[in-house]
Write a structure and sequence with these properties.
heterodimer; B: Tetracycline Repressor, domain 2; Four Helix Bundle (Hemerythrin (Met), subunit A); flat
Protein backbone atom coordinates (compact mmCIF):
# COMPACT_ATOMS: atom_id res chain seq x y z
CA UNK A 1 0.00 0.00 0.00
CA UNK A 2 2.89 2.33 0.74
CA UNK A 3 3.82 2.29 -2.93
CA UNK A 4 0.26 2.22 -4.20
CA UNK A 5 -1.68 4.96 -5.97
CA UNK A 6 -2.84 6.56 -2.74
CA UNK A 7 -0.06 5.55 -0.40
CA UNK A 8 2.84 7.62 0.86
CA UNK A 9 4.75 6.82 -2.29
CA UNK A 10 1.71 7.27 -4.57
CA UNK A 11 0.02 10.24 -6.18
CA UNK A 12 -1.32 11.76 -2.93
CA UNK A 13 2.00 11.28 -1.15
CA UNK A 14 3.86 13.05 -3.94
CA UNK A 15 1.33 15.88 -3.97
CA UNK A 16 1.61 16.20 -0.19
CA UNK A 17 5.41 16.36 -0.32
CA UNK A 18 5.28 18.92 -3.13
CA UNK A 19 2.94 21.17 -1.14
CA UNK A 20 4.99 20.71 2.01
CA UNK A 21 8.18 21.66 0.12
CA UNK A 22 6.51 24.79 -1.24
CA UNK A 23 5.38 25.76 2.26
CA UNK A 24 8.86 25.24 3.64
CA UNK A 25 10.41 27.50 1.02
CA UNK A 26 7.75 30.14 1.65
CA UNK A 27 8.40 29.93 5.40
CA UNK A 28 12.14 30.30 4.83
CA UNK A 29 11.51 33.42 2.72
CA UNK A 30 9.24 34.88 5.41
CA UNK A 31 11.75 34.21 8.20
CA UNK A 32 14.59 35.70 6.16
CA UNK A 33 12.43 38.73 5.35
CA UNK A 34 11.56 39.21 9.02
CA UNK A 35 15.25 39.04 10.00
CA UNK A 36 16.08 41.74 7.43
CA UNK A 37 13.07 43.79 8.53
CA UNK A 38 13.94 43.74 12.23
CA UNK A 39 17.61 44.44 11.48
CA UNK A 40 16.73 47.46 9.34
CA UNK A 41 14.16 48.68 11.86
CA UNK A 42 16.66 48.45 14.72
CA UNK A 43 19.38 50.29 12.80
CA UNK A 44 16.99 53.09 11.84
CA UNK A 45 15.56 53.45 15.37
CA UNK A 46 19.00 53.40 16.99
CA UNK A 47 20.10 56.05 14.50
CA UNK A 48 17.26 58.28 15.68
CA UNK A 49 15.25 57.95 12.45
CA UNK A 50 11.49 58.59 12.48
CA UNK B 1 1.08 2.92 5.43
CA UNK B 2 1.39 5.62 8.04
CA UNK B 3 -1.59 6.99 9.93
CA UNK B 4 -0.95 10.41 8.38
CA UNK B 5 -1.24 9.06 4.87
CA UNK B 6 -4.36 7.17 5.75
CA UNK B 7 -5.94 10.38 7.02
CA UNK B 8 -4.91 12.24 3.91
CA UNK B 9 -6.62 9.70 1.71
CA UNK B 10 -10.10 10.26 3.09
CA UNK B 11 -10.16 13.89 1.96
CA UNK B 12 -10.69 15.49 5.38
CA UNK B 13 -8.81 18.80 5.77
CA UNK B 14 -5.67 17.89 7.60
CA UNK B 15 -3.40 20.33 9.45
CA UNK B 16 -0.16 20.89 7.60
CA UNK B 17 -1.34 19.87 4.13
CA UNK B 18 -2.37 23.22 2.64
CA UNK B 19 -0.17 24.76 -0.05
CA UNK B 20 1.54 28.14 0.33
CA UNK B 21 -0.90 29.51 -2.26
CA UNK B 22 -3.80 28.66 0.07
CA UNK B 23 -2.27 30.78 2.83
CA UNK B 24 -1.85 33.64 0.38
CA UNK B 25 -5.49 33.22 -0.67
CA UNK B 26 -6.52 33.53 3.00
CA UNK B 27 -5.04 37.03 2.98
CA UNK B 28 -7.50 38.22 0.29
CA UNK B 29 -4.75 39.75 -1.86
CA UNK B 30 -7.10 41.73 -4.10
CA UNK B 31 -8.70 43.51 -1.15
CA UNK B 32 -5.25 43.98 0.33
CA UNK B 33 -3.97 45.82 -2.75
CA UNK B 34 -6.54 48.62 -2.40
CA UNK B 35 -5.95 48.77 1.37
CA UNK B 36 -2.20 49.10 0.85
CA UNK B 37 -2.62 51.77 -1.79
CA UNK B 38 -4.98 53.94 0.26
CA UNK B 39 -2.74 53.50 3.31
CA UNK B 40 0.25 54.60 1.27
CA UNK B 41 -1.59 57.69 0.06
CA UNK B 42 -2.46 58.62 3.65
CA UNK B 43 1.17 58.26 4.61
CA UNK B 44 2.46 60.31 1.67
CA UNK B 45 -0.10 63.12 2.07
CA UNK B 46 0.66 63.56 5.77
CA UNK B 47 2.86 66.53 6.65
CA UNK B 48 6.51 65.98 7.53
CA UNK B 49 8.91 63.31 6.41
CA UNK B 50 9.28 59.70 7.40
CA UNK B 51 12.30 57.43 7.12
CA UNK B 52 11.75 55.19 4.05
CA UNK B 53 12.44 52.02 6.05
CA UNK B 54 9.86 52.94 8.69
CA UNK B 55 7.40 53.98 5.98
CA UNK B 56 7.88 50.57 4.32
CA UNK B 57 7.34 48.83 7.66
CA UNK B 58 4.17 50.84 8.26
CA UNK B 59 2.73 49.86 4.87
CA UNK B 60 3.77 46.24 5.41
CA UNK B 61 2.00 46.20 8.78
CA UNK B 62 -1.17 47.62 7.23
CA UNK B 63 -1.02 44.96 4.50
CA UNK B 64 -0.40 42.09 6.93
CA UNK B 65 -3.13 43.24 9.34
CA UNK B 66 -5.60 43.49 6.44
CA UNK B 67 -4.62 39.97 5.39
CA UNK B 68 -4.97 38.71 8.95
CA UNK B 69 -8.48 40.16 9.14
CA UNK B 70 -9.32 38.34 5.91
CA UNK B 71 -7.98 35.04 7.27
CA UNK B 72 -9.98 35.30 10.50
CA UNK B 73 -13.03 36.30 8.46
CA UNK B 74 -12.62 33.20 6.29
CA UNK B 75 -12.30 31.04 9.41
CA UNK B 76 -15.52 32.41 10.92
CA UNK B 77 -17.50 32.44 7.66
CA UNK B 78 -16.43 28.99 6.40
CA UNK B 79 -19.99 27.65 6.79
CA UNK B 80 -21.64 30.31 4.64
CA UNK B 81 -18.68 30.50 2.23
CA UNK B 82 -19.41 26.86 1.34
CA UNK B 83 -22.92 27.87 0.28
CA UNK B 84 -21.98 30.74 -2.02
CA UNK B 85 -20.75 30.38 -5.60
CA UNK B 86 -18.29 33.26 -5.19
CA UNK B 87 -16.60 31.85 -2.09
CA UNK B 88 -16.94 28.06 -2.17
CA UNK B 89 -13.46 27.57 -3.63
CA UNK B 90 -11.77 29.33 -0.70
CA UNK B 91 -9.25 27.09 1.15
CA UNK B 92 -11.56 26.23 4.08
CA UNK B 93 -14.86 25.42 2.33
CA UNK B 94 -12.91 23.61 -0.41
CA UNK B 95 -11.37 21.37 2.27
CA UNK B 96 -7.77 22.27 1.52
CA UNK B 97 -7.03 23.61 5.02
CA UNK B 98 -8.05 22.82 8.58
CA UNK B 99 -10.03 25.67 10.27
CA UNK B 100 -7.64 25.94 13.20
CA UNK B 101 -4.75 26.64 10.84
CA UNK B 102 -6.54 29.59 9.28
CA UNK B 103 -7.48 31.00 12.68
CA UNK B 104 -3.97 30.57 14.07
CA UNK B 105 -2.45 32.10 10.97
CA UNK B 106 -4.76 35.12 11.17
CA UNK B 107 -4.31 35.73 14.89
CA UNK B 108 -0.49 35.47 14.72
CA UNK B 109 -0.36 37.90 11.80
CA UNK B 110 -2.78 40.33 13.46
CA UNK B 111 -0.93 40.42 16.78
CA UNK B 112 2.46 40.51 15.03
CA UNK B 113 1.57 43.37 12.69
CA UNK B 114 0.15 45.53 15.49
CA UNK B 115 3.20 44.84 17.70
CA UNK B 116 5.68 45.67 14.92
CA UNK B 117 3.74 48.85 14.05
CA UNK B 118 3.90 49.93 17.71
CA UNK B 119 7.53 49.07 18.29
CA UNK B 120 8.82 50.21 14.91
CA UNK B 121 6.61 53.17 13.98
CA UNK B 122 4.37 54.58 16.72
CA UNK B 123 1.62 53.45 19.06
CA UNK B 124 -1.10 55.73 17.65
CA UNK B 125 -0.83 53.95 14.31
CA UNK B 126 -0.63 50.60 16.10
CA UNK B 127 -3.77 51.36 18.12
CA UNK B 128 -5.66 52.31 14.95
CA UNK B 129 -4.41 49.16 13.24
CA UNK B 130 -5.56 47.01 16.16
CA UNK B 131 -8.91 48.80 16.15
CA UNK B 132 -9.29 48.11 12.42
CA UNK B 133 -8.69 44.37 12.84
CA UNK B 134 -11.02 44.21 15.85
CA UNK B 135 -13.70 46.18 14.01
CA UNK B 136 -13.55 43.95 10.93
CA UNK B 137 -13.49 40.70 12.87
CA UNK B 138 -15.70 41.41 15.87
CA UNK B 139 -18.08 44.14 14.68
CA UNK B 140 -18.48 43.30 11.00
CA UNK B 141 -17.79 39.56 10.65
CA UNK B 142 -19.08 38.20 13.95
CA UNK B 143 -21.78 40.71 14.88
CA UNK B 144 -23.28 42.62 11.96
CA UNK B 145 -22.80 40.54 8.84
CA UNK B 146 -25.42 37.89 9.65
CA UNK B 147 -27.80 40.17 11.53
CA UNK B 148 -28.52 43.38 9.66
CA UNK B 149 -28.63 44.78 6.12
CA UNK B 150 -26.64 47.70 7.51
CA UNK B 151 -23.69 45.27 7.87
CA UNK B 152 -21.53 46.83 5.19
CA UNK B 153 -22.52 50.42 6.05
CA UNK B 154 -21.13 50.16 9.58
CA UNK B 155 -18.64 47.41 8.87
CA UNK B 156 -17.28 49.46 5.99
CA UNK B 157 -15.44 51.55 8.57
CA UNK B 158 -12.84 48.77 8.83
CA UNK B 159 -11.90 49.22 5.18
CA UNK B 160 -11.81 52.99 5.59
CA UNK B 161 -9.16 53.11 8.31
CA UNK B 162 -5.99 52.43 6.22
CA UNK B 163 -5.34 56.02 5.00
CA UNK B 164 -5.91 57.21 8.56
CA UNK B 165 -3.39 54.63 9.79
CA UNK B 166 -0.91 55.72 7.12
CA UNK B 167 -1.37 59.33 8.22
CA UNK B 168 -0.95 58.40 11.89
CA UNK B 169 2.20 56.40 11.04
CA UNK B 170 3.76 59.54 9.57
CA UNK B 171 2.57 62.07 12.16
CA UNK B 172 1.46 60.15 15.25
CA UNK B 173 -1.82 62.09 15.05
CA UNK B 174 -5.42 61.88 13.90
CA UNK B 175 -6.44 65.09 12.13
CA UNK B 176 -9.38 66.42 10.11
CA UNK B 177 -7.58 65.61 6.87
CA UNK B 178 -7.14 61.95 7.81
CA UNK B 179 -10.79 61.78 8.91
CA UNK B 180 -11.79 63.10 5.46
CA UNK B 181 -9.75 60.32 3.80
CA UNK B 182 -11.54 57.86 6.08
CA UNK B 183 -14.93 59.32 5.15
CA UNK B 184 -14.23 58.98 1.43
CA UNK B 185 -13.86 55.19 1.69
CA UNK B 186 -16.61 54.90 4.29
CA UNK B 187 -19.16 56.53 1.96
CA UNK B 188 -17.88 54.60 -1.07
CA UNK B 189 -18.28 51.15 0.52
CA UNK B 190 -22.12 50.84 0.53
CA UNK B 191 -22.73 51.57 -3.18
CA UNK B 192 -19.70 49.45 -4.05
CA UNK B 193 -20.93 46.36 -2.17
CA UNK B 194 -24.60 46.85 -2.91
CA UNK B 195 -23.81 46.90 -6.65
CA UNK B 196 -22.16 43.50 -6.16
CA UNK B 197 -24.99 42.21 -4.00
CA UNK B 198 -27.56 43.07 -6.70
CA UNK B 199 -26.23 40.33 -8.96
CA UNK B 200 -25.18 38.02 -6.10
CA UNK B 201 -28.48 38.29 -4.20
CA UNK B 202 -29.34 34.60 -4.71
CA UNK B 203 -25.97 33.61 -3.25
CA UNK B 204 -26.50 35.76 -0.15
CA UNK B 205 -30.09 34.54 0.25
CA UNK B 206 -28.92 30.90 0.10
CA UNK B 207 -26.32 31.60 2.79
CA UNK B 208 -28.80 33.55 4.95
CA UNK B 209 -26.77 36.76 4.84
CA UNK B 210 -29.21 39.69 5.14
CA UNK B 211 -27.74 41.86 2.40
CA UNK B 212 -29.97 44.78 1.38
CA UNK B 213 -31.40 43.21 -1.83
CA UNK B 214 -32.35 40.08 0.15
CA UNK B 215 -34.06 41.97 2.97
CA UNK B 216 -35.36 45.19 1.40
CA UNK B 217 -35.59 44.19 -2.25
CA UNK B 218 -33.88 45.16 -5.49
CA UNK B 219 -35.69 48.50 -5.95
CA UNK B 220 -34.82 49.77 -2.47
CA UNK B 221 -31.19 48.70 -2.93
CA UNK B 222 -30.98 50.65 -6.17
CA UNK B 223 -32.47 53.68 -4.43
CA UNK B 224 -29.91 53.42 -1.62
CA UNK B 225 -27.07 53.08 -4.13
CA UNK B 226 -28.19 56.33 -5.76
CA UNK B 227 -28.48 58.13 -2.40
CA UNK B 228 -24.99 57.08 -1.32
CA UNK B 229 -23.57 57.93 -4.75
CA UNK B 230 -24.90 61.48 -4.39
CA UNK B 231 -23.59 61.74 -0.81
CA UNK B 232 -20.23 60.54 -2.08
CA UNK B 233 -19.86 63.70 -4.20
CA UNK B 234 -19.33 66.27 -1.39
CA UNK B 235 -17.36 63.73 0.63
CA UNK B 236 -14.83 63.08 -2.10
CA UNK B 237 -14.56 66.76 -3.02
CA UNK B 238 -13.86 67.69 0.61
CA UNK B 239 -10.05 67.28 0.26
CA UNK B 240 -10.08 70.39 -1.95
CA UNK B 241 -12.19 72.43 0.44
CA UNK B 242 -10.08 71.65 3.51
CA UNK B 243 -6.87 72.50 1.62
CA UNK B 244 -5.59 68.93 1.36
CA UNK B 245 -5.54 69.08 -2.44
CA UNK B 246 -5.76 71.51 -5.35
CA UNK B 247 -7.34 71.73 -8.78
CA UNK B 248 -5.29 68.81 -10.11
CA UNK B 249 -7.46 66.68 -7.85
CA UNK B 250 -10.71 68.64 -7.92
CA UNK B 251 -11.41 68.78 -11.66
CA UNK B 252 -10.94 65.06 -12.48
CA UNK B 253 -12.65 64.14 -9.19
CA UNK B 254 -15.79 66.01 -10.31
CA UNK B 255 -15.76 64.06 -13.58
CA UNK B 256 -15.29 60.75 -11.75
CA UNK B 257 -18.24 61.60 -9.49
CA UNK B 258 -20.48 62.53 -12.42
CA UNK B 259 -19.72 59.12 -13.95
CA UNK B 260 -20.44 57.42 -10.61
CA UNK B 261 -23.85 59.07 -10.25
CA UNK B 262 -24.66 58.29 -13.89
CA UNK B 263 -23.69 54.68 -13.20
CA UNK B 264 -26.02 54.61 -10.20
CA UNK B 265 -28.85 56.06 -12.35
CA UNK B 266 -28.17 53.39 -14.97
CA UNK B 267 -28.42 50.72 -12.26
CA UNK B 268 -31.82 52.12 -11.29
CA UNK B 269 -33.11 51.89 -14.86
CA UNK B 270 -31.53 48.56 -15.81
CA UNK B 271 -33.52 45.44 -14.93
CA UNK B 272 -30.59 43.15 -15.84
CA UNK B 273 -27.27 42.57 -14.05
CA UNK B 274 -25.32 44.52 -16.63
CA UNK B 275 -25.43 47.98 -15.05
CA UNK B 276 -24.71 46.71 -11.48
CA UNK B 277 -21.69 44.76 -12.77
CA UNK B 278 -20.42 47.83 -14.56
CA UNK B 279 -20.93 50.03 -11.51
CA UNK B 280 -19.12 47.52 -9.28
CA UNK B 281 -16.12 47.40 -11.64
CA UNK B 282 -16.15 51.18 -12.05
CA UNK B 283 -16.36 51.77 -8.29
CA UNK B 284 -13.00 50.02 -7.80
CA UNK B 285 -11.39 52.09 -10.54
CA UNK B 286 -13.05 55.22 -9.12
CA UNK B 287 -11.55 54.83 -5.66
CA UNK B 288 -8.15 53.91 -7.04
CA UNK B 289 -8.15 56.97 -9.34
CA UNK B 290 -9.32 59.34 -6.60
CA UNK B 291 -6.45 58.35 -4.33
CA UNK B 292 -4.01 58.36 -7.27
CA UNK B 293 -5.19 61.92 -8.04
CA UNK B 294 -4.49 62.96 -4.45
CA UNK B 295 -0.93 61.71 -4.95
CA UNK B 296 -0.63 63.42 -8.34
CA UNK B 297 -1.94 66.66 -6.88
CA UNK B 298 0.65 66.51 -4.10
CA UNK B 299 3.42 65.78 -6.61
CA UNK B 300 2.30 68.67 -8.79
CA UNK B 301 2.17 71.21 -6.15
Amino acid sequence: MADGENGAGGANGKEFRKRRRGRNWALLAVLFGLAVLFYAMTIVRLGGGQ
Amino acid sequence: MSDRTAELDIGVPQAGTAAAADYIRLLKPRVMSLVVFTGLVGLVLAPGTMHPVLATIAILCIAVAAGASGAINMWFDRDIDALMERTRDRPLPAGRMAPGEALGFGVVLAVGSVAVMGLGVNWTAAALLGLTVAFYVLVYTMWLKRRTPQNIVIGGAAGAFPPMIGWAAATGEITLASVVLFAMIFMWTPPHFWALSLYRAADYARAGVPMLPVVAGIAETKRQILIYSVLLVPTTLAPYFIGLSGLVYLVPAILLNVLFVLGALAVRRDATHRAPKRLFAYSILYLFLLFALLLADRAAG
